[in-house]
Amino acid sequence: MILLRGMFLSIAACALALTCMAQALEDPAEEARAQALMRELRCVACENEPISQSSASIAEDMRARVRTMVGEGASDDEVRDWFESRYGEFVLFRPTGKGLSGLLLWGAPFGLLIVGGLIAFGVARRRQAGASEVEPVAPEDV
Amino acid sequence: MIELGHLAAFLALAASLAQGVLGLMGARALAGRAALVAFGVMSLSFLTLVVAFARSDFSLALVANNSHTLKPMLYKIAGTWGNHEGSMALWCLVTLGFGGAGALWMRTGRDVFEARTLGVQGWLATGALSYLLFASSPYLRLDPAPLQGAGLNPILQDPALAFHPPMLYLGYVGFSFVFALAAAGLMEARIDRVWAREARRWALAAFVPLTIGIALGSYWAYYELGWGGWWFWDPVENASLMPWLIGAALLHSVAVTEKRGNFAAWTALLAVLAFLFSVMGAFLVRSGVLTSVHAFAVDPKRGMVLLTGLVVYGTFALGLFALRAPKLEGGKPWQMLSREGALAVNNVVLVVAALTVLLGTLFPLMAEAAGRTISVGEPYFRLTFVPMLAALLAILPVVQVWSWGKADLSMLWKWAAGGVALVAVFLALGVGLWDIPLGAAFGLALGVWLLFGSVGELRRRAVTWGRVFRMPLRVWGMTLAHIGLGVFVIGAVVETTQRYEATLALPAGGSGTVAGWNITLKDVHAIEGPNWYADKADITARRGSAKAEMAPTKRYYPAARMPTTETAIHKTGTGDLYVALGDRRDVDGETRWVFRVYFNPLIDFVYLGVLLMGLGAFFSLLPVRRKPA
């Protein structure tokens, strides 16, 4: 309950800040890049919301900062790094792939896919070795 | 009254214990009777809780803490399971319900096996009931009784949410019976075609409500939270997605066991995992280790009990599996490129996808234990989970045609040509004409590919269109579920890449434009409901000749001191115009109201697709008329 109430208070606080329609960047490509970045940065005052959606004043500031940096020609990684150094890793909805933990987080899904594939391959080969002449059977009802 | 319910719950515990002991001793008939008695008395017990809620009996602590006299009747009743203790009572009721259903409807002709299944289910029920009675009792009285209750969490006062938890629990707990079937099958080291035919029905009986429950939860989040999206990769959403993915893998694997006698060990493992993932979901949600909308009545001690249960169930089942899996018999031979091989790939991907969701959900917790705060959000799942499943779906239409044992590869080049042509068309249309991102063009091609593939396969098996409606229900079930995947993919791709959102701050009489819609605020006035009061905005939305009156509302529930958003949604046929009322602002002496406006194209396809998957599973569950011999 307490958590919930906190969450709604923060949303209410978010809605107080109004000027959400900040100046978009002139170059549509840059604006699109800025918006993509906004979708993966976490609003630090809200519950599980990216700054692209939040109307908290802090999110507004963060959006402006993204636009400024993109407008000055910063790369996506430079923007992410700046926010990370300022607010900590918490702010990145796309966690960094650096270090051992990054390797684990980003590598594990594909590693598991490879391991699972190899196991399935191994089993299939064993089955195949015993099956010189297999009669194909059409699937009836599945 | 409630004391009667309390007593009945103890009787249910005794009956479940008897069911557990008798069942493992192999007494099918007696265990079955015990299961029915347990379900009967627990129904009575649950009914006393429902009645206490319906009559707002505040001498019951649970009612006092979670209900209110001014609440509409539907939410009084739904309030029974809108809290921790009550939802655990529902969990117990459903567990016993599946035990009773199993006692009545298991048809394997193997008495000892069925008795053991009921036995294991009895022990699961004993565990759940002990937890209910000794760690989170809903039957406690308050003295003196308060005159008024604290009210149900307002955001839960919603029709979709009234039915979301029962549906989800039918799914989660339904897997407990599949778990019991797997344990009993492993005990006698016989996971064969007869076993699979039985297990498949129960897995479907769990999968259908789980699918509907997830859809309801997602739809609720869409219109109630006012954030415009339908899936937030919130830990609790993930907790329901993981058993669903394992369940989907199970349904495909159990078909192999049923038809060919293969994958026996793997199917048994999935049957066990589906329930373990369900319990883990309950643990993650209820223990409060994850912060989320659902973390009502968070209590670390209860979390420890749930975690212990999870470890005990897991150790028992996985230990049994390790002992017996090597003794299971294989089925008919198959080659790598065959229906079996393709379904093995399906299973690897679905299970790894579930593990990816698990990793993404737990990683922030693990990092926190190491002293770091990390967020894992939508971009992570978009870059790992989504491509994995997209690749799996891309091969679906091709391998769906393959035969058991050995695939006929002579048509492969036609499939390749068809796929390339489809992608080319959508790349040309998408990037050239519609100006959508490259990924969206691929996604649309994938959705259409799935639709063609599913319908084409139905037609291929029926040989002529005329015979399509005489195909077995199971074929229709499969077809509908796969069509549902296609519809879902199209909806998800269009909605996520083409959604349009904006914030407007309007004075009365003011207007703004979003996605071609002219939004005019007529006025905002205060209204009152049974247990809330609200600001209601009257809006006229116009686009060309189309016109819609909309009334987004912001409610305030005094009993809970909490606001909720009642979004206004206008279905245009191609999407939803979605307006949520925010706060009131005074700028330079002028009153303005903040609105968040979204245009969500094809969002209905997302829900339609999921419902088709559920409907397909339901068709597959329906009994088949025996062919005359």
From TrEMBL, chain A:
Q: What does this protein do?
A: Possible subunit of a heme lyase.
CDD domains for this protein: CcmH_N
The UniProt entry's sequence similarity note says:
Belongs to the CcmH/CycL/Ccl2/NrfF family.
**A single GO CC term, please?**
plasma membrane
Using the record's annotation, list all stretches that form the CcmH/CycL/Ccl2/NrfF N-terminal domain: 11-136
State the protein's name: Cytochrome c-type biogenesis protein
> Which GO annotations describe the biological process of this protein?
cytochrome complex assembly
User: What start and end residues bound the annotated signal peptide?
Assistant: 1-24
| A molecular-function term among this protein's GO annotations | metal ion binding
Question: What InterPro entries has UniProt attached to this entry?
Answer: C-type_cytochrome_biogenesis (IPR051263), CcmH/CycL/Ccl2/NrfF_N (IPR005616), CcmH/CycL/NrfF/Ccl2_sf (IPR038297)
Automatic annotation (TrEMBL), chain B:
GO biological process terms held by the UniProt record: cytochrome complex assembly
Q: Which GO terms describe its cellular component?
A: plasma membrane
InterPro entries per UniProt: CcmF_C, Cyt_c_assembly, Cyt_c_biogenesis, Cyt_c_biogenesis_CcmF
What parts of the sequence cross the membrane?
Answer: 6-27, 34-54, 88-106, 118-140, 169-189, 201-221, 241-257, 264-284, 304-323, 344-367, 379-399, 411-430, 436-455, 475-494, 605-624
Give the keywords, sorted: Cell inner membrane, Cell membrane, Cytochrome c-type biogenesis, Membrane, Transmembrane, Transmembrane helix
Where does the Cytochrome c assembly protein domain lie?
A: 81-287
A GO term for molecular function: heme transmembrane transporter activity
Q: Which Pfam families match?
A: CcmF_C, Cytochrom_C_asm
Where is the Cytochrome c-type biogenesis protein CcmF C-terminal domain positioned along the sequence?
Answer: 310-621
Subcellular location(s) per record: Cell inner membrane
Topology of the protein relative to the lipid bilayer: Multi-pass membrane protein
The entry's function note states: Required for the biogenesis of c-type cytochromes. Possible subunit of a heme lyase.
PANTHER family in alphabetical order:
CYTOCHROME C ASSEMBLY PROTEIN-RELATED (PTHR43653), CYTOCHROME C-TYPE BIOGENESIS PROTEIN CCMF (PTHR43653:SF1)
What protein am I looking at? Cytochrome C biogenesis protein CcmF
